[in-house]
């Protein structure tokens, strides 16, 4: 099945653990769908310049979204209410990933770093940098699922993949 679900390009889709689909679009909205692409509730707006990543948490109750306006927004997927906005600053948040315990959000930057943000506080906990990726656009990030030894992988526009240990930086 396919359907036109947004008014512009869809840059992110992700399944929740409850079997729902979350989509983020250049049309500046995040939407929740059932498995047959039937919309469930109103779209979540407020993003400017397009949604890059929309990633549900481990329980499927909320999602973290990044947008071209340099913000990270946390949405309650049931109520469609915005629960937190993190102003990441210019070039500080492109793609994002959540830790398996839902406590951290990792974001790629336009200049080769990976930022790690606390979900509860909205504070930047770490800025991970490597001399090998300086000035490379971090286009994708992921956080390892092993909570005992969290690592972040980052993929850049120059073809580089870097793995950071969060404990040692």
TrEMBL record:
Transmembrane segments: none annotated. The keyword Repeat applies. SUPFAM superfamilies: WD40 repeat-like. InterPro entries: SKI8, WD40/YVTN_repeat-like_dom_sf, WD40_PAC1, WD40_repeat_dom_sf, WD40_rpt. WD repeats lie at residues 3-34, 44-85. One of its GO terms (cellular component) is Cdc73/Paf1 complex. PROSITE patterns: WD_REPEATS_2, WD_REPEATS_REGION. Keywords: Repeat, WD repeat. PANTHER family: SUPERKILLER COMPLEX PROTEIN 8, WD REPEAT-CONTAINING PROTEIN 61. This is Anaphase-promoting complex subunit 4 WD40 domain-containing protein. The lineage of its organism: Eukaryota, Sar, Stramenopiles, Ochrophyta, Dictyochophyceae.
